[in-house]
Amino acid sequence: MRRDQLDVSDIELSKQCFRLSQGAFESGSPWQEEQFLSTIKNPSNTNCFLFNQDKLVGYILLSTVLDEADLLLIGVAKEEQRKNIGQKLLQEACLELDQKEVKKIFIEVRQSNSKAISFYQKNGFVEIAKRRNYYQTPKEDALIWMLEL
After folding, report:
1. Percentage of the residues of the chain whose pLDDT score is greater than 70
2. Domain limits, CATH 3.40.630.30, in the chain
3. What does the alpha-carbon distance between residue 8 and residue 109 come to, in Å, rounded to a whole number?
4. Where is the signal peptide (predicted)?
């Protein structure tokens, strides 16, 4: 669902994204509410949200610059995982990015995050590089993945 189709304030949406992330990620939300709010309010970003009635069940947030996008964060409610919601969100985002003439999407993933790596491989991303010690808590390499649209 595109941002302009939502009947919810930016502040409420950022709170919902944060709450969803608290349960969706093993170590809790990687972002604070303020980071969600800043990303949601940025008009150059491409953000897609999926609701089941009035409850947020997933989001994908991307930063776009010229013909490239960085996938900043994707989250699916824990009870909704393994139901292709992440894939639906990625497909919706790709359609919107195509309209903006974006050619490539990049994502950084912890080397140990096999669940995310499997998701990106399944959706056509290819590993293109490694950033040593990119993550600090705990210290770990990041793998850079790219999808050509």
Report:
1. 95
2. 3-102
3. 30
4. none
DSSP 3-state of 112: coil
**Buried b / exposed e along 76-112 (16+ C-beta atoms within 10 A):** bbeebeeeebbeebbebbbebbeeeebeebbbbbeee
Predicted pLDDT at 28 = 87
Q: Which two tokens stand for residue 80?
A: 């909704």
Burial environment of residue 7 by CB neighbours within 10 A (0 to 12, 13 to 18, 19 or more):
exposed
Q: Which residue has the tokens 């995982």?
A: 81
Query: The pTM is what?
Result: 0.90
Query: Residue 137: pLDDT above 90?
Result: no
pLDDT at 1 over 80: no
pLDDT of residue 6: 57
- CB burial class (10 A; 0-12, 13-18, 19+) of residue 25? middle
3-102: what CATH class? alpha beta
Distances (CA, A) of 38 to 19, 31, 44, 77: 16, 11, 11, 21
